[in-house]
Structures are given as structure tokens and as C-alpha cells.
Design brief:
Elements lengths: L38 H23 L3 H17 L5 H17 L3 H18 L4 H16 L3 H17 L6 H20 L3 H13 L6 H17 L3 H18 L8 H16 L3 H18 L6 H14 L3 H19 L4 H16 L3 H17 L4 H20 L3 H19 L7 H13 L3 H18 L2
Length: 466
């Protein structure tokens, strides 16, 4: 009997800690622009605007979006009613309002506000850090609307301005520059423009002495995570590796580990596993476990790392070392995800397979039945259908070995149906079940039916050839 490929619930790449969509670049005031005629009136009006603008920023950062919108709109009203060189104030007000509207689920309005703000800033300030920040925000807003081609010119403008600014040692300028490089590299990679992406990634890796190491590591981590989630593993790898190096260099003995450092370790470990480099992933998982336990012994992310360490021991046939790690992972998953959840179902299935490879048939079958019951209670999404099919394939194998061919066939067919629902009729993940059905038919002397499955197997394998 063919076992379906063991699909471990790998620790997903750590999700970015940053919000998708707009980068929260809040603009600095440009010069001493007057908001009203007359020194006394100017002072009062400028103070009023600054108070409103700061309130909008504070409410935005505390995620009180209704209050932030109110303050931002009032700041915009005050700026527009002023006299003199009010354009930078209007642009700043439009920027914070756009950030708020983005978070309120109005991305199209945010884009319109940012376009207006950028146009104003280009006219009033030209190649200024505020203009670069607005261009970056506009690019992120368009990117969030799945409009990467339209986002590219905005990102390019942000980079052009920061490259041209005389004060390249300013950390704020360096940060906008790094964000623009990261965004350009990511978008070009997603568009399949690998040469352009590589050039931006190389500049990003080189970094800048103006940017603090922690900030540079943060930018590299975010970019690496985004590329990893896009499946751009070759491009993500050097970024994540350098992020880990920077975080490790900053770590001090006895210091509480920074969350970003742990996330970088987790992401790089997951990437190595995606590239089947388990020997590189294993020490990173161990370090992540140590750091997470030091910070929070009940951290739910520990389950994924423990699961992956168990896989590493399993591949080395170190089953006794794998078992306690899997059991710890399962217990943590139950605590944090509930008894009926996809991680618990997967880890129960993993324990069942571990019992099976050691020849413990009855415990293995019992655990597979428990896993199947869990999968059947979950929403019928692709990972659930795949897990359910895998479990049915194993259970059918038990019946086949007992020569209960009728029961085995019913379960194999059910597994095949679930796989076809999940991945279609020509995916390579169907092969183990199709080959098992072929073997079953041959065992029953039903050669013509076996040949039908053999033809499907050959067709799928042929399609997989490069």
C-alpha cells in the first residue's frame, strides 16, 4: 500500500507584524509655513492645527479610528481655511486622513486622498522627505488594492527623492529609502521581473549606516516574510538570513528576547524546511523554542516548532525523541486552539503515523480514527479535505492488510473524491490513492479496472515532467 506523502503542519512563516496597505508614515512639518495673516492670528491658527494633527496621530496609533477621522478632518478644514503657504499643512492633513480611512476599510478613498496630497507636496516642497513619504504611502495603498503596476511609479518616486536628498545620513530618510527598496523588490519579484527585483534586494541587503541595525533588521524581516508568503523563496532567503544575523548581533545575555528576533528565526527555519534543508532548520527551531519558552512558556507558537523538531527526529528514525515533542505540541495546540481544530487534527494524525512506522498497528489505527473524527467536524476547506483524505488512505490500508477489500475500497474511493475536491483531478497528490486503488483491483483479479487507475497515474506523472 502506498502511503500519501506525510503532510506535516509546518509552522507557517510568521505573519508580518505590520499592517498591510498603507505604511504609517506620518509627515513632519515642512518649514515655518504660515496658516493665517497677522502674526497673532497665525500663531493661534497654527497651534490649533498642530493640536488637531497630533490628536489625529495619537488616535490613529491607539486605533481609535472614529476619533482620528474627526480630528484629521478638522485639521484639514483649519489648514484649508488658512492663508499663506498652507500647502504642506494640507498635505499632512490629507495623509493622516488617508491612513485612517484605509484602516476603516475605505482603500479607494485613501488612494484619492494620497494622490491629492502627493500632488500638493510635489508643488509646494518638491524633493522633500515629506514628498517621498507620501509617494511611499500611495504606492502601498495601490499595492493593497492589488494594483502593483500602478504602485511601481509611486515607489520609484519615493526612492528617487531619497536618493537625491543631500542629508543621506538622516535615519528618517534612510528608513523611507529602505521601505521603497523593499517594496520595489517585492513587487518586481511578484511580477516575475527577477533581474529588477534582485537589484533592489541587493541594495536592501547592503543597507545604510544611517539606519539603526534594529530598524534595518525590521525592514529585511518584513520584506523577507512578504516574499516568502509569495513563494519567492530564493529572494526571501538572503533577506531573512541577514535579518537573523542582525538580530543575533544585537542580543545581549539575560535580555528578554525581542519578538521580531524570534519571528525572524521562525521564518528562516520555515524557509529552510520549504527548501528541504532540515539540518539548517533544526538549530533555528531549537533556538526559537528556547527563546519563546523564556519569554512565555505557554506561547502558542511553540507547538509549531516542537512539531518541526519532531519531524527532524522522525526523518532520522529517532522515534523515541520525536514522540515527546509531538505530544507536547499536541497539548499546546489543544490549549490554544481547542480540542476540535486543524492543528490538533494534524498533530493527532502525525502521532498516528509515528505509531504506524514503529509497527504499533492498533494504537495507530485508533489515533487515525480520532483524527478523522476531528477533520469531519471542521469546515470543508482545502487543508481539511487533504487531511481527511490522508487519514482515510491510512485507514483503508489497515483494512486492505486484513483483506477486508470492500471496506478498503470504499475508503480509498472516499479519499480520492476528497482529493479531487481539494486539488482537482490531475494533481500529483492523487497518486498514492490511485496507486493503492490499482493495487486493490489487482488483488481482487479485476485487471481491467486496475488498468484504468494505472492510466491515470501515468498521465499525471507524465504531466509532472519538466
Amino acid at each position: 500500500m502506498k502511503a500519501m506523502p506525510m503532510k506535516w503542519p509546518h509552522s507557517p512563516a510568521a505573519k508580518p507584524l505590520w499592517r498591510s496597505g498603507l505604511a504609517a508614515v506620518l509627515l513632519a512639518l515642512a518649514g515655518s509655513a504660515a496658516l493665517a495673516s497677522g502674526a497673532e492670528a497665525e500663531g493661534r491658527t497654527q497651534a490649533q492645527w498642530q493640536t488637531l494633527y497630533q490628536q489625529a496621530q495619537q488616535h490613529y496609533q491607539s486605533q481609535d479610528h472614529a476619533a482620528a477621522e474627526q480630528a484629521a478632518r478638522e485639521a484639514l478644514r483649519v489648514a484649508e481655511a488658512g492663508q499663506g503657504n498652507v500647502q504642506p499643512y494640507i498635505a499632512s492633513s490629507l495623509n493622516i486622513l488617508a491612513l485612517v480611512r484605509q484602516q476603516q476599510g475605505e482603500p479607494e478613498e485613501a488612494v484619492a486622498l494620497l494622490r491629492r496630497a502627493l500632488e500638493i507636496s510635489e508643488t509646494a516642497l518638491g524633493e522633500h522627505l515629506n514628498t517621498a513619504s507620501l509617494a511611499l504611502n500611495l504606492g502601498n495603498a495601490l499595492d493593497g488594492l492589488q494594483q502593483p503596476q500602478q504602485a511601481l511609479p509611486a515607489y520609484a518616486r519615493a526612492l528617487q527623492i531619497t536618493d537625491a536628498l543631500a542629508d543621506a545620513s538622516d535615519p528618517h530618510t534612510a528608513q523611507v529609502q529602505q521601505e521603497a527598496l523593499a517594496s520595489l523588490g517585492r513587487v518586481h519579484a511578484a511580477l516575475g521581473q527577477s533581474e529588477q527585483a534582485a537589484a533592489y534586494h541587493q541594495r536592501l541587503l547592503e543597507g545604510t549606516t544611517a539606519l539603526p541595525q534594529a530598524r534595518h533588521a525590521e525592514t529585511l524581516l518584513r520584506q523577507g516574510l512578504e516574499l516568502q508568503q509569495q513563494g519567492q523563496l530564493a529572494q526571501a532567503r538572503p533577506l531573512l538570513e541577514q535579518a537573523v544575523q542582525l538580530y543575533q548581533a544585537q542580543a545581549e545575555p539575560g535580555q528578554t528576547p525581542h519578538g521580531s528576533r524570534i519571528n525572524a528565526l521562525s521564518a528562516l527555519a520555515a524557509l529552510y524546511q520549504q527548501q528541504n534543508e532540515y539540518a539548517l532548520a533544526e538549530p533555528l527551531h531549537r533556538q526559537a523554542v528556547e527563546l519563546r519558552r523564556a519569554a512565555n512558556p505557554q506561547d502558542p507558537a511553540l507547538a509549531g516548532h516542537l512539531n518541526e523538531l519532531a519531524l527532524w527526529h522522525w526523518q532520522r528514525k529517532e522515534y523515541e525523541q520525536a514522540r515527546p515533542l509531538l505530544e507536547q505540541a499536541l497539548e499546546l495546540a489543544r490549549q490554544h486552539q481547542g480540542d476540535v481544530s486543524l492543528p490538533v487534527a494534524h498533530m493527532t494524525s502525525n502521532l498516528a503515523q509515528l505509531e504506524g512506522v514503529q509497527g504499533h498497528e492498533n494504537p495507530s489505527k485508533t489515533l487515525h480514527q480520532q483524527a478523522l473524527a476531528l477533520f469531519e467536524q471542521l469546515p470543508r476547506e482545502q487543508p481539511v479535505l487533504l487531511g481527511q483524505a490522508q487519514t482515510l488512505n491510512f485507514l483503508a490500508g489497515f483494512d486492505y492488510r486484513k483483506r477486508r477489500f470492500g471496506e478498503a475500497e470504499a475508503q480509498f474511493l472516499q479519499a480520492l473524491n476528497l482529493l479531487e475536491q481539494a486539488v482537482g483531478t490531475d494533481d500529483e497528490r492523487l497518486l498514492p490513492v490511485l496507486e493503492n486503488l490499482e493495487t486493490l483491483k489487482i488483488s481482487q483479479g479485476r485487471s481491467s479496472e486496475a488498468a484504468q487507475y494505472r492510466r491515470r497515474v501515468e498521465r499525471i506523472k507524465e504531466a509532472q515532467k519538466p
